[in-house]
């Protein structure tokens, strides 16, 4: 069998094929050789099997994006084998090839789960186009699933940032740490109070990693009912769940090659924690009702607004899972410890929200800047964004809603935070008179000028 030259000019096709793992199942050695030579130059990996038993062994060892399956083979027919794989939990796209085709066979192939049907004899370009269509359909289906997930969670639009904003020393240290771990697959644990930007940090990491062109899947573990979380994460085969006749790929397989961000991981049920431990350790999952594991290539970023050590001590979080995910840890600083980042973020939100809501923008004067710097922001970045949105809606900054800091007497603050608070308080009491504020504080006017310039006032 001669193979005509193949020319692939479509960059998107080349990129799709270069990531694909393909399994060829055909009892004819010549056809297997032809398909191997056709696909190998373009695909990440191509494996072959001469029988369905060999194909079973290949699928048990690894995951494939495409299965090219001959229908007429000794023993079990390709159609029957495919139907069995669907019952066992196979989610690979399948292209059926056969020299004997009629309408009834084509319909049976589609019912069994085949995504395309190619009639022998065929040319190399016909096969490559069929593989491309199958990969594109799988990609579109996954993108649709993930988009509906993000729409349901409200995690879309200009408010979703992919980069950490700010020039403070604390956020610079976070960026440096993320850059250091971007090239490894070790799980990353991000801790910090609600609203400090844990998901933004995870998106930042994904964006600077070699997985940036693959999916980023954020999952709020607290938002999924405990009895549904395993099905949502790992998927399920047809009939595994009452009232749901069709199978579905889970969020983890849909993120293949990318990054999964599990927020509020402390909310996972014991059963889900056990299943998560296995996939983090072995890179394998088993969809509900399936008889076969799926191998995954994922980077896990996990987050919790509650410290996990007390959860482990109380028996609510598995100790072995904690030790497995706590190899690399980043603690997101609260907004009050991020120096003048509050001004940078406020200006960003002013632009973003005004454009999205078609509202007139506002200019921050020195009084507003001082009030933003003085406020403690217990709700962190989320509170700041809400404040800016209210300001744009009403056309003024509601500074009266910013309560004065409430701190316990024994709390220890960073020295620069204490200095900033005292100087801003003195300026408030003197009506912005820097000379009088300096006199009362016992420092020079130049010191106040220098400090205020550093704070953007």
UniProtKB/TrEMBL annotation:
Required for activation of most nif operons, which are directly involved in nitrogen fixation. Residues 21-135 form the Response regulatory domain. CDD domains: AAA (cd00009). InterPro entries: AAA+_ATPase, AAA_lid_NorR, CheY-like_superfamily, Homeodomain-like_sf, HTH_Fis, P-loop_NTPase, Sig_transdc_resp-reg_receiver, Sigma_54_int. Residues 164-393 form the Sigma-54 factor interaction domain. Interacts with sigma-54. GO terms for biological process: phosphorelay signal transduction system; regulation of DNA-templated transcription. Pfam families: AAA_lid_14, HTH_8, Response_reg, Sigma54_activat. The modification 4-aspartylphosphate is found at residue 70. It comes from Gemmobacter caeni. This is Nif-specific regulatory protein. PANTHER family: TRANSCRIPTIONAL REGULATORY PROTEIN, TUNGSTATE-RESPONSIVE TWO COMPONENT SIGMA54-DEPENDENT SIGNAL TRANSDUCTION SYSTEM RESPONSE REGULATOR FIS FAMILY. Gene3D superfamilies: 1.10.8.60, 3.40.50.2300, Homeodomain-like, P-loop containing nucleotide triphosphate hydrolases. Transmembrane segments: none annotated. It comes from the Bacteria.
């Amino acid at each position: 069998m001669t193979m005509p030259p193949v020319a692939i000019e479509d960059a998107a096709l080349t990129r799709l094929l270069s990531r694909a793992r393909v399994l060829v199942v055909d009892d004819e050695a010549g056809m297997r050789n032809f398909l191997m030579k056709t696909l190998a130059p373009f695909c990440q990996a191509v494996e072959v099997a001469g029988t369905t038993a060999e194909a079973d062994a290949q699928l048990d060892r690894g995951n494939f994006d495409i299965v090219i399956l001959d229908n007429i083979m000794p023993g079990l027919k390709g159609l029957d084998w495919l139907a069995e794989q669907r019952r066992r939990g196979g989610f690979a796209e399948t292209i059926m090839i056969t020299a004997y085709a009629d309408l009834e066979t084509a319909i049976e192939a589609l019912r069994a789960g085949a995504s395309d049907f190619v009639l022998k004899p065929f040319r190399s370009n016909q096969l490559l186009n069929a593989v491309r269509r199958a990969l594109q359909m799988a990609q579109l289906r996954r993108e649709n699933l993930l988009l509906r997930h993000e729409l349901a969670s409200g995690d879309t639009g200009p408010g979703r940032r992919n980069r950490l904003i700010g020039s403070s020393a604390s956020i610079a240290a976070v960026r440096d740490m993320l850059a250091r771990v971007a090239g490894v697959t070790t799980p990353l644990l991000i801790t910090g109070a609600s609203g400090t930007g844990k998901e933004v940090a995870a998106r930042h990491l994904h964006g600077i990693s070699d997985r940036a062109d693959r999916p980023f899947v954020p999952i709020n573990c607290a938002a999924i009912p405990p009895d549904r979380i395993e099905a949502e994460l790992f998927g399920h085969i047809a009939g595994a769940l009452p009232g749901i006749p069709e199978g579905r790929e889970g969020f983890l397989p849909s993120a293949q090659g990318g990054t999964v961000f599990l927020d509020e991981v402390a909310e996972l049920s014991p059963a889900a924690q056990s299943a998560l431990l296995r996939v983090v350790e072995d890179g394998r999952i088993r969809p509900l009702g399936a008889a076969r594991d799926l191998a995954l290539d994922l980077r896990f970023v996990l987050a919790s607004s509650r410290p996990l050590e007390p959860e482990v001590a109380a028996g609510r979080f598995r100790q072995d899972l904690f030790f497995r995910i706590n190899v690399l840890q980043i603690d997101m600083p609260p907004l009050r410890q991020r120096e003048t980042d509050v001004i940078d973020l406020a200006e960003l939100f002013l632009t973003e929200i005004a454009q999205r809501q078609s509202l007139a923008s506002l200019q921050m004067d020195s009084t507003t800047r001082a009030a933003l710097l003085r406020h403690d922001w217990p709700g962190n970045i989320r509170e700041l964004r809400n404040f800016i949105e209210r300001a744009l809606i009403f056309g003024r900054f509601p500074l009266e809603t910013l309560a004065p800091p409430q701190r316990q007497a024994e709390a220890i603050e960073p020295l620069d935070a204490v200095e900033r608070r005292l100087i801003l308080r003195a300026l408030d009491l003197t009506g912005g008179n820097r000379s009088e504020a300096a006199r009362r504080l016992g420092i020079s006017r130049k010191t106040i000028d220098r400090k205020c310039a550093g704070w953007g006032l």
